[in-house]
Design a protein that fits this description.
The protein is mainly alpha-helical. It is 78% helix and 0% strand.
């Protein structure tokens, strides 16, 4: 992870340098391209920081859930030859943790478990949203 962050930072620095060289060239089209390229390092830096922040928050919740003995164990669930959990088993697990959430919707631990169940079912977008809710509730925001 550290290597990828350093590599991305180097890429962003080089991209910023190219943008400044284009702006310094004095040509109107090159200045336009340089200004457009100058925005990209800021977007990349923001994306990297946001991803790291979310990852560390999810890791913290994972440690807390594990310490409480509430982590979902997908080891017993049947799997396809590819290694993914079978859809019916993932759906049954999701229904179980969704019922727990419906009974206690303000509990961050329940949201975390729903996020993990979404992940096991392959729904990454909903898993991220559930994890965001779990982090927000756990931090008291």
């Amino acid at each position: 992870m550290a290597f990828m962050c350093v590599a991305l930072l180097m890429y962003l620095v080089f991209l910023g340098r190219i943008a400044l060289l284009l702006i310094a060239s004095g040509s109107v089209p090159a200045i336009g391209m340089g200004v457009a390229l100058l925005i990209m390092p800021f977007i990349g830096l923001w994306a990297m920081i946001a991803t790291l922040r979310d990852g560390f928050a999810h890791q913290r919740l994972s440690r807390l859930i594990d310490a409480a003995g509430m982590e979902l164990d997908p080891g017993a669930l049947p799997r396809r030859p590819s290694g993914r959990i079978e859809r019916d088993a993932a759906d049954a697990l999701f229904q179980q943790v969704r019922a727990e959430l419906d009974a206690d919707p303000d509990n961050w631990q329940r949201w975390y478990r729903v996020g993990r169940a979404y992940e096991f079912a392959g729904d990454r977008r909903r898993a991220r949203e559930a994890m965001k809710t779990a982090v927000r509730l756990q931090e008291g925001r």
